[in-house]
Design goal:
The protein is mostly helical. Helices cover 72% and strands 0% of the residues. The chain folds into 2 domains: 76 residues, no CATH class; 209 residues, Orthogonal Bundle (MetI-like fold). The chain is built from 16 helices and no strands. The two termini are 41 Å apart.
């Protein structure tokens, strides 16, 4: 029998990378390119705003002094060409320098570090209950297709989609706080309480770490009202999306074959239908999480929740361009890496996604 060649004559078989590692590498590279794109868009759009950032930083009196204005413009690099300004902007970003805020007179990075955990805490709380209720009600409506229960859930989801979030916020504030006094109306803690030592910036987590269960219960009570508003606002979309995805999967051949074999409904519903619909539901949940982090401006303003939304609102009305650029960049990065995490989970759940 002929033997395989050895030594230098051996033909090396090229080794192919593992599909999962290749999939992760490609998605990560795409995410990095998208982050760079966000920096370009943020820089260009902010420079198109017809206002002078130097005047916003200095104030009215100091802005009338040409020497002070020229010195600050040179310090901020605004006297340089636009491409040079963008390069300086990227250089500062590498060192996590987002500039100085005109409204707080402090570093924008430090302001975002204080504001982001509050919004993250609220978003995680809302996401948990929105996914739990949205997917549960969507699955219940799909499994009872065209029944009175299905129609009732669809009507409720339509109300959730149609009602403006500021109207829900004001109605909840008036009824649950002003009229019934069931829940606190504003802030993250009672004014008489001192926040727990900062570890994560989320009061519920930090109070548990410090062993302060009184602070934990108070922080949760303050979370309920704004979380209820955002849950009612987001749950409608999740119900409709989950119902549509589950209905589509329930008509697939492998589900019909499982029913023909006489498998119990519990196994068919959770092992076949819900698992098959998990990818689109997971994708929608990731988009919901990103929108919660970026779209809670009105809710945070109504309930005086000192998070990212309220910080962005104050930066916008005061034309604080450095803060606006920082918020825009942070939201863009969060969206990108949330989608990156969702893509990884989809690749782990369904191997077919890795080779697409």
């Amino acid at each position: 029998m002929p033997q395989a060649p050895v030594g230098d004559a051996a033909v090396a078989t090229p080794r192919r990378s593992h599909p999962l590692l290749r999939y992760i590498s490609i998605r990560f590279l795409i995410s990095i390119l998208l982050v760079w794109g966000v920096t370009v868009v943020t820089f260009v759009v902010t420079n198109l705003v017809p206002t002078d950032p130097v005047s916003a930083v200095l104030g009215e009196q100091a802005a009338n002094n040409p020497e002070i204005v020229a010195a600050l413009r040179a310090e901020m690099g605004l006297d340089q060409p636009l491409l040079t300004q963008y390069w300086l902007y990227l250089t500062r970003l590498v060192h996590f320098d987002l500039g100085m805020s005109a409204q707080t007179r402090g570093p924008v990075a430090a302001d975002l570090a204080r504001a982001f955990p509050a919004t993250l805490e609220l978003a995680l709380f809302v996401l948990f209950f929105s996914v739990l209720l949205g997917v549960g009600l969507g699955m219940l409506a799909a499994l009872r297709h065209q029944s009175w229960l299905d129609k009732t859930i669809r009507v409720l989801s339509l109300f959730g989609i149609s009602m403006p979030v500021f109207w829900i916020a004001m109605l909840a504030y008036y009824v649950l706080f002003y009229q019934l006094h069931w829940l606190p109306g504003s802030g993250r803690l009672d004014s008489a309480l001192i926040p727990p030592p900062t570890v994560t910036g989320m009061y519920t987590v930090d109070s548990l770490i410090a062993g302060r269960f009184d602070l934990f219960t108070n922080a949760v009570s303050h979370l309920i009202l704004p979380a209820l508003v955002l849950t009612l606002f987001t749950i409608g979309t999740l119900i409709r999306f989950s119902r549509s995805a589950i209905l589509d999967v329930s008509q697939q051949d492998y589900v019909q074959a499982a029913r023909a074999k006489g498998l119990p409904n519990r196994i068919i519903n959770f092992r076949y239908i819900l698992r098959g619909a998990s990818l689109p539901i997971l994708t929608m949940s990731g988009l919901t999480f990103g929108s919660l982090l970026s779209g809670a401006v009105l809710t945070e303003s109504v309930f005086s929740w000192n998070g990212l939304g309220q910080y962005a609102y104050k930066a916008a009305i005061s034309l604080d361009l450095q803060a606006i650029m920082g918020v825009g960049l942070l939201i863009g990065v969060v969206y990108i890496f949330t989608n990156f995490a969702v893509d990884l989970l989809c690749g782990l759940i369904d191997p077919r996604v890795r080779v697409q």
